[in-house]
Amino acid sequence: xFMQLLTIERRKLTxxxxxxxxxxxxxxxxxxxxxxxxxxxxxxxPDLPPQAQAELRASLRWPQGLLNALxxxxxxxxxxxxxxxxxxxxxxxxxxxxxxxxxxxxxxxxGAYLGAKFGALAGALLLLVLTALLAGGAATGLYTWRAxxxxxxxxxxxxxxxxxxxxxxxxxxxxxxxxxxxxxxSRSTLxxxxxxxxxxxxxxxxxxxxxxLASPDLARWARYLPGMAAKAALSFLxxxxxxxxxxxxxxxxxxxxxxxxxxxLLAYTAAGLALAWWAFRRQDIAG
Amino acid sequence: MxxxxxxxxxxxxxxxxxxxxxxxxxxxxxxxxxxxxGPNGAGKxxxxxxxxxxxxxxxxxVLLFGQEVTPLRTAVLRQVGALVGAPGFYPYLxxxxxxxxxxxxxxxxxxxxxDEVLExxxxxxxxxRRKVKTYSTGMKQRLGLAAALLQRxxxxxxxxxxxxxxxxxxxxxxxxxxxLADQGVTxxxxxxxxxxxxxxxxxxxxLRQGRLVALGPVADLxxxxxxxxxxxxxxxxxx
Lengths: 287, 239
Description:
The complex is a heterodimer. Chain A is mostly helical. Chain A has helices at 2-14, 17-42, 50-59, 64-69, 78-96, 99-104, 110-148, 158-186, 189-214, 216-219, 226-233, 258-281. Chain B is an alpha/beta fold. Chain B has helices at residues 44-51, 95-103, 111-120, 125-129, 137-149, 167-182, 194-200, 218-222, 228-236, and strands spanning 6-15, 18-28, 33-37, 59-64, 67-68, 80-84, 155-159, 186-190, 203-208, 211-217. In chain B, the strands form two sheets. In chain B, strands 6-7-8-3-9-10 form a six-stranded mixed beta sheet, sandwiched between helices. In chain B, strands 2-1-4-5 form a four-stranded antiparallel beta sheet, with helices on one face. In chain B, helix 2 packs across helix 3 and helix 3 (111-120) packs across helix 5. The model of chain B has no long low-confidence stretch (mean pLDDT 91). The chains are: A mainly alpha, B alpha/beta.
């Protein structure tokens, strides 16, 4: 039953324009941001020391450039925003369209329904990460090819790349699970999107600043927020571009180690799913 | 004696102080076409919601084919076809694609079954290829009935299935439901169209403010009355 539902959810998700629009926008943004940085670097930069310029150029070439592409898709940045929008639409619109009635009244177990929905969503998020990798990889690959005349395929750190893809994917899961919970509780796409984006853009950001102002000791707690944990989980991708779309600053205190950060992100995901299940199992699906 | 297909025991559903369903008990036998009547707000849709595992009963039990149904125990509903109010579908998919999606839940349903039910409910091939967002209310209702019939259920639970249908559509629906009941499918039909119910159903229950106020074979209830509308008005009276 679960595998059938997963196939159904995948079909529902891939049939929606929203998913492909999100992927196209992400690819365009990642490509355009890389292109903009590269264009700026072509101009003389008197304020930037030559060594810093050289380091920045190196970070835009393969293999580092390829790893950097992943930072755009992480949960604390562009990827988190896309995950929220997708999760809110995919879950809450089932209430608006009354399609949740359709499945549950046919004997689909509530747990399997919710699990399959999150499973399909997680699959779509992996697609999001791969899209960022491909778009960023294409932009930095072009730059590398122009600079070096060839692509250094043999220098590519394949295991780091695989770890990077998986870690970036994990950073997106808490945002999807949290939004899924809000969507189930509110049954509203607008509320779920608003709460998800509000949290991503304002609360995490503001919380860090407020904690910093209150006390550096308190600020240490900020590293346990999903956005900071995402940053920590990807810290092994050294020399990242660090394009800040969501959280624009870290606490003075250091980040968690990548391993504990990933575990924390998985715990947040589990908590989001548990909350969604708690609400969904006792919910009256009427109207 | 065969087990009733539907058994409701002292079923209650309260929304705060409102007693939407208040101690409802009834049984429906296999192959019956059962009319479930009542004015707006009588608790018909709420009862159907509990029968389909969409609502938690405040108290009481629902048994379908002898198995209890709650929102967390719904396995038996795989044998049930249902149409609840305005049926929901994915607007970005065509009518046929929506049905194919549902058919994936039932491996026993062959690919040809989708076209078979579309024809059965009178949804033409061209219409079935169109996206659901372009459908009229009547077309959605036909698609909803097609979805309910998809897995050849032995029990059909229909809440206002003729909503949005034109007179021809209503007559077709009436014929279809009577035909299914004649084939042994149990039909539980909630409707405001008393004339339709009188023509199709074997037995009728009338609900008022969540309570059962009349129950019996249509012929018995009609005794001494002009039609079912008169029975209904007498039983339910002024609200």
